[in-house]
Design goal:
Elements (H helix, E strand, L loop, with lengths): L3 E4 L8 H16 L5 H4 L7 H9 L8 H18 L12 H10 L3 E4 L6 H8 L7 E2 L13 H10 L6 E5 L2 H9 L3 E5 L10 E3 L7 H5 L2
Parallel strand pairs: 1-2, 1-4, 2-3, 4-5, 5-6
The protein binds 6-O-phosphono-beta-D-glucopyranose and magnesium ion.
């Protein structure tokens, strides 16, 4: 029985997965590192420095800690520029409805994003008040695919992890949900998210009565 639904943000509720990709791609081009959408799949859900390390794997030279911090800051600047004008119009179709359906059914909701920009973004999208808990990415020691993000949300909600479902577009996210012993719903390509318990094409494809009957 599902008592809480944990929502990822980037790529699930709004199209920022693409904005993150564009920001990384700009940086990668500037330093001459090969990078494309396929390589980007591995970065989805992964925190900023972890993503940078993955992107730098094919860079023409090595970067020390101070340089890596500067590169991460530069990427975040590009990303913040891309989300500057975001508003409720940037929610994916069905995103607000999905959150409202959870509330109407008496389920708890949490935002389980790895992004340090998440709190700002949900404010701009106008959905902040629909979450019972928002995980602060800055307090997570081991990010996705580690289950810590999800377990901290379950603890904050006071719900046993086995009674939680999570909605994720990233391979790292599905892995983290399964490691937390939660029901893992993938949003995206079933071939990419093959380990999920269920996969839908987009958040508007979620049939809420079905989720509730799990
Ligand atoms: C995740 C995204 O939600 O947040 C990743 O899927 C991103 O692509 C990560 O790297 C961290 O985001 P931020 O905003 O803290 O750099
Ligand atoms: Mg995501």
């Amino acid at each position: 029985r599902i008592e809480a639904v944990l929502f990822d943000l980037d790529g699930v509720l709004t199209d920022t997965a693409h904005a993150h990709y564009l920001a990384w791609k700009t940086l990668a081009d500037e330093i001459g590192a090969p990078f494309d959408e396929k390589a980007n799949e591995a970065l989805k859900g992964v925190d900023r420095m972890g993503s940078l390390d993955l992107m730098l794997k094919k860079a023409p030279r090595a970067y020390d800690a101070a340089e890596r911090q500067a590169l991460a800051d530069r990427k975040n600047g590009y990303y913040q520029k891309l989300i500057e004008g975001y508003g409720p119009q940037d929610l994916f179709p069905g995103a607000r409805e999905a959150l409202e359906a959870c509330k109407a059914a008496g389920l708890k909701t949490a935002l389980v994003s790895a992004s340090r920009n998440a709190a700002t973004l949900v404010q701009r999208l106008g959905i902040a008040e629909l979450f019972d808990h928002v995980v602060d990415a800055g307090t997570i020691r081991r990010g996705k695919p580690d289950p810590e993000t999800y377990l901290s949300a379950a603890a904050a909600l006071g719900i046993d992890p086995v009674h939680c479902a999570g909605i994720e577009d990233a391979q790292a996210g599905i892995a983290g949900l399964l490691a937390a012993r939660m029901y893992a719903v993938g949003v995206g390509d079933p071939a990419v998210l093959s380990s999920a318990d269920a996969v839908v094409g987009g958040i508007d494809g979620l049939r809420w009565p079905r989720i509730l009957s799990l």
